[in-house]
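Good morning,

Both structures are done.
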Amino acid sequence: MQTFPRKKIELIVESAYLSPMLAMIDATGATGYTVIRDLIGRGRHGERGREALGENSNVLIIVICTPVIADRILEGSQRILGDGFGIVTVSDVQVLRAEHF
């Protein structure tokens, strides 16, 4: 079965950043994204638990796209987040339907 190379970007940000991040992603030409709300986890700054759900929660934004669009999203993310809270990862993935991404 033929697959096609793409980039997967995962952005964990505070929910306050969600709207500007999605507007930026739309402006890059990405064909879509997935948002998962109310993340719970632990990291360098301690635990982020159920008490941070709702307006103060973390969200995960997942985008699968071409390398060119991935670069645009990374640049836009840096502009929006600056030195603020955010975790951004990029992975190489294979997709079955290239036209969707």
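Second structure follows.
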Amino acid sequence: MESSVSLHFPVVSALWGETQKHQGLATPWAGDVVTNSGTILAADEIIRKNRRITTREIAVELSIRKGTAHRIIHKKLGYGKICAHWVSKHLSENQKIARGGLDTSATQEFLH
């Protein structure tokens, strides 16, 4: 039985068949073949060297898709970005009081 994709898009289906042979994938939605311990360790090492690196830069460096890089970073390694704007929600009351005593004139230009 042919899939609906091959019935409606025979050229795309034929091209996908060739791609499958070269990449060893059964379908475009087959699991991430690159999410292995080596890739995860490499991503962790890259992040530890540069905490300001982006998901896209990691994906390019490891030659993986951006979604795969995102999944490795957030699900496998448990990393997350914290935007400075959201930090105050994560501070304890003592930290908020200590932060309140800081000179706010330096940050006023960024708030407006």
